[in-house]
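ok so heres the complex, three chains, lmk if somethin looks off
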Amino acid sequence: MTETIASRADVIVLGGGPAGMCAASAAARAGSDSLLIDENSQGGGQVYRAPPAAFAETSPGAFGPDHAIGASLRLALADSGARTAFGCRAWSVSRDVGGAGFRVDVCDDNGLKAWRAPALVVATGATERVLPFPGWTLPGVHGLAAATVMLKAQKLLPGERVAVAGCGPLLLAVAAGIAKAGGKVAGVIDLASVSDWLRVLPGALSRPDLLARGAAWVAGIAAAGTPYLRRHAVTAALGDDRVSAIALSPVAADGTVDRASQPLRIDCDALVIGHGLVPNCDVTRILGATHRYAPADGGWIAVRDGDMRTSIPGLYMAGDGGGISGAAAAALQGELAGLAAARDLGALAAQRHLDLAAPLRRRLGRAMRFGRAMAGLMVERPGLVASIPAETPVCRCEDVTRAEIDQAVAEGAREVNQVKAWTRCGMGPCQGRMCGDTVAAVVARLVGGRSAAGAFTARVPLRPVPTAQLIGSFDYADIPIPRPAPL
Amino acid sequence: MTTVLDVAVVGAGINGATAALFLARGGMRVALLDRGQICRQASGVNAGTLTMQMTRRALIPFALEAHAMWASAAEWLGHDVGVVVCDGLSLAFTDGEAQLLSERVAARREAGAPIDLVDGKRAQAIEPGVSDKVLLAGHCKVDGYANAYLTGLAFRRALEREGVAIMENRPVTGADRAQGAWALLTPEGTIRAKRVVLAGGVWLEDMASWFGCAIPIKVLINQLAVTERMPVAMRTVLGIASGLLSLKQYPHGTVVIGGGWQGLGDRVAGPRAVIPENLVGNVRLACHAVPALERSRIVRAWLGLEAETADALPAVGALPGVEDVAMVGSIHSGYTSGLSIARHFARWLLGAPLHPGIAAFDPARLVVRPGAR
Amino acid sequence: MSRRIEKGVQRPPPVTILVDGRLVPAFPGESVATALLAAGYVAFRKSPRAGKPRGPFCMIGSCQECLIRVGEVPVPACQATVREGLEVTLGGTQ
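and the predicted structre for the whole thing:
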């Protein structure tokens, strides 16, 4: 029968993006036995997601600059001596019963396994915010982040004529990526105005290399003659069984849709759209760390010190999961978290830790200025939340509309978990991981803010677990059935 | 607040909410206080099972009465709580379980529960989803389930209509006696009432201590899990002889798996963590009973806190040594029986003689140190 | 026009997967979602309440919109990797 096998490490790192890879590498180099767990088959996370190992570049550099950075991080990880568990889905995190530290339960093709460690670095990155609009559930509508996965890792165009909409740097990266891959961009629809972009310029100047890359994207879009609509929002995806066109309207600075003006229409067979990134702090919430609502950081974030320590001893949060600040900052935060974990475990002397951390902190300051500038373009726009039409489904899994959420609040629900209980909003297979932030934003408008509205309670499993994998093969006699309940 | 209410009920689970509702209908001015929101603890997150086959023998008469109340909630509460009345089966897979089941079915029958013993073949005829490994089953036609998530919504609507003051997010920190009334202390001011009803589930021990009374209450941390929506796999409520499995499929297709496997948590911190082995064990047991569950996925596991007294029977009646304070709670499988017990309790507070069956649940038997207020 | 990007990429020789009994060409290593999208599938399942068509949305295993079965096991198509002879059923767990 399949048994839960327990294994130990000094430091477990959850998530194999830049933060996680750097955390695992740094801890290993500092002498700790570190283990990186990620569900993907290779390191990279979303930003440096690698194509399948069986896919090759036709010439060096053909996969682009991000691929090269990812490759160097993967190499550094391999050289560091850190252990890795790729293709391994973590489904449960908990405080280890009867021992100091943490327990991570995983399942992969070989069954169930539990890992234990006194230190846990959470590097689970961000999820994308896509604010609902009519038709957003149509096939052919994808997130901007999904488009980056298609382009970078899957080597797939999102469609033959792709509308690219939303805000932030991903908008330009995806539009440029589609064009570069030989695809057709039907239009770029940006919530931001030129002045919004200019406002973040001073922060962006901290990374002239990345700024230049962004400028090249804009120039490329213009050169291709692609329509670029600023201060516009997609107000509907049109089509019966798949998207065939989108409707657009001008918006105010806060995202409020101008319904008075005649909507524009763009024909397309795919729409990729994203309204910013939201820190994924499921793990630190399940473990009970202290969080606060920080809109400029993307939403709820774990409270951390300069070494990425959360409020729970031994628990660290690095990268976008701790507040949206971009890939460069994530890598540095990961390194700081890995070093801090090694120091806290006694593997690294205090002075040595300070010496190693000091230059990282300086570089992090610079990277954060750039990352925060970009994050500034991706903050939640309250007017866009207010513009969600009543009959639009907010919860995709359960088709729960904005009107049903409003109704629950009118019935006396005062926070999102009550709304969930009364409407099934967030009870589907994604467990509110797609709609949670939107529901909270909608409820917050009615109950007096995000703190009052709260957040869906985070629970295990971290992802739906196929029952067959969870139970493995077993004999009935071996199920440790507790003693009978009293009669 | 200078108004003196007739009754302040502390704890807005089904016991407190039911008591408040019937007290208001009896003409009293009632406030219902909770440190959180209405029916958001055990009453809102339990598995929703309404079954005689997990009910303690002494509670069977109340469970039968409450089952009828749940089934007719639309009439007396004014709102449906997603109640489905259906057959229930308690399964035995081994000779040992068959022995246990026979004894328990006999005891529950004696207490009035309409349960029959059927063989495995008959069990499969009643519930085609059940495994062919069943040796013996208890079969009850008065079982079913509610959608526990909707409990708070239904009670909130009913209480508002009766004029009960619902005070959510109002933690009580203590109580003072002044001018022949109780003053409940909360961060947002004092609530004054002639009488106080404690209906705090696992927090009854803390509540009794406000009045100097020591009644130990154990805390069970029950784990539950739910599948995503799946095609019809079962139409009955299922359990096993030991009582440590509950299974039902809701009309929308999700299957809730419970039975009282334990997680981590306590009264102060609340639910803390699902114990993975216990989830796996619980789900294995569920799949052993209904093999089709293997084709689904578990999307969520959660925890609910259940109160248990020293003898695992309810605490209902006057708080010993304390004037004008009474309690109702710690009812094993309380979601099934609570409505009836809390209604009897309310009738007693309104002046009716106490139901003799409930008199046996006098908190005095549990008191380590009586109150002195 | 193929939606698969040719520029700069050398793929391994194609294989076939079986989708609801139909042979679909695919490349080993890519996700089943990619293979299906490239083969012209847009809707993978219907939403359970409103019965509306749904296809891949997040592509990172969060949204569950692209749920399929590989053999008996329900899995998001974006998280399933193509290999020769993989048997896929559309329609999620419904």
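quick notes: Chain C has a mean pLDDT of 94. thats all i got rn
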